[in-house]
Design brief:
Elements lengths: L6 H17 L5 H5 L8 H13 L3 E2 L8 E2 L1 H11 L7 H12 L4 H16 L2 E5 L8 E10 L2 E8 L4 E7 L6 H15 L4 H12 L3 H4 L1 H14 L8 E4 L3 H4 L5 H12 L1 H14 L3 E4 L11 E10 L2 E11 L4 H21 L1
Antiparallel strand pairs: 1-2, 3-7, 3-10, 4-5, 5-6, 8-9, 9-10
């Protein structure tokens, strides 16, 4: 597809898209012919735009002589016409400092979505890690009441998972500490599901029969990990930005908000990015999620070391500044990965 257009057609398509992104108004041939880079007549530019319309890259939204990009035009623009650069120093510093100042992984995920919303003026989105993919390093216990204990599971990346556990057996403060040490040793950098399997296996062993402290620790661990596998979450910051767009169409925005309410669609889309292990751009009807609202989703995976944990990205109108947004999404994913890898 990248070889489908001649050089002049490429130049005209790039100019139309950049003009439209900047103004939101249909672009006419005389408007482009006045630009310094086009040393041709308005009639020549009009002829090229007509060819691009026939090929499906441009369309006329109404009786105006001007044209706007189609999803196919945006796709060609992103794949073949963009010259991408890293975000500027101020943007990079803002992202890195914002992520680094958070004490835990959950706060970092929230900050990543906020930063992308702040810098792009579109909705920032983060798919948090599946609990099954999170590697935990220690487990601690805090007594809430005589018969109630708070289990705190701390992950390698700083993520914390809490669960209140009801107990029906006596447990001293010293035994709580021993239970923490015993289960942390049993944990040995495992997921919740792996830890629960180990706990249930240990409960079947002889030690649980004659070691009262071990038996209590294992019962406590089993209760703490029961039903904890859960699901990943989708964090979205700035959905109101869709209504702030100067060319916002109320009916189109309602369709988009309905789509956002169906979180499973967005989750499935972001999960595709995570499995692909590389940035993905979904324009308009290229995905089930965005088919209702002329929406673009730009997302990139993040992780810790070699492990891919989730996805970070932006949701906005197809008329977005791709040249700015794509590098910001990519850099935010890299910065989040660096923060998680250090914890």
């Amino acid at each position: 597809m990248s070889d489908e257009l001649a050089e002049r057609e490429r130049e005209v398509l790039r100019a139309v898209i950049q003009e439209y992104i900047g103004s939101g108004d249909p672009v006419g041939s005389s408007q482009l012919a006045r630009k310094a880079e086009f040393e041709v007549s308005s009639a020549t530019v009009r002829h090229v735009m007509a060819d691009l319309e026939a090929l499906g890259y441009l369309e006329k939204p109404h009786t105006s002589a001007g044209r706007v990009p189609t999803d196919r035009g945006y796709r060609f623009y992103c794949d073949a016409l963009l010259n991408l650069r890293e975000p500027g120093p101020k943007d990079r510093e803002l992202i890195e400092q914002g992520l680094a100042q958070n004490s835990g992984a959950d706060e970092a995920y929230q900050e990543a979505s906020k930063m992308l919303h702040l810098l792009t003026k579109h909705a920032g989105v983060v798919l948090t890690p599946r609990p099954a993919a999170v590697v935990f390093e220690r487990i601690e216990f805090v007594r809430l009441r005589e018969d109630r204990v708070l289990a705190i599971l701390v992950a390698r990346g700083g993520q914390v998972q809490n669960k209140a556990v009801q107990i029906d057996f006596p447990l001293s403060a010293e035994e709580l500490v021993k239970a923490s040490h015993y289960l942390t040793e049993l944990l040995q950098a495992a997921s919740i599901e792996e830890l629960r399997s180990r706990i249930l296996a240990e409960l079947e062993q002889e030690r649980a029969q004659y070691d009262a402290v071990a038996a209590k620790a294992l019962k406590l661990g089993a209760a703490a990990t029961d039903g904890s596998s859960g699901q990943e979450r989708v964090l979205i910051e700035g959905t109101g930005s869709f209504l702030d767009a100067p060319d916002a169409d109320l009916e189109r925005m309602r369709a988009l908000f309905r789509a956002l309410d169906e979180k499973h669609k967005l989750l499935a889309l972001l999960d595709r990015v995570q499995r692909a292990r590389e940035m993905q751009i979904f324009i308009g009807a290229e995905s089930d999620f965005s088919s209702e609202g002329e929406v673009t989703v730009i997302a990139s995976p993040y992780g810790a070391g070699e492990q891919v944990l989730g996805t970070v990205g932006v949701i906005g109108p197809t008329r977005m500044n791709y040249q700015r947004v794509i590098p910001l999404v990519n850099f935010t994913a890299q910065a989040l990965s660096r923060v998680l890898s250090r914890r």
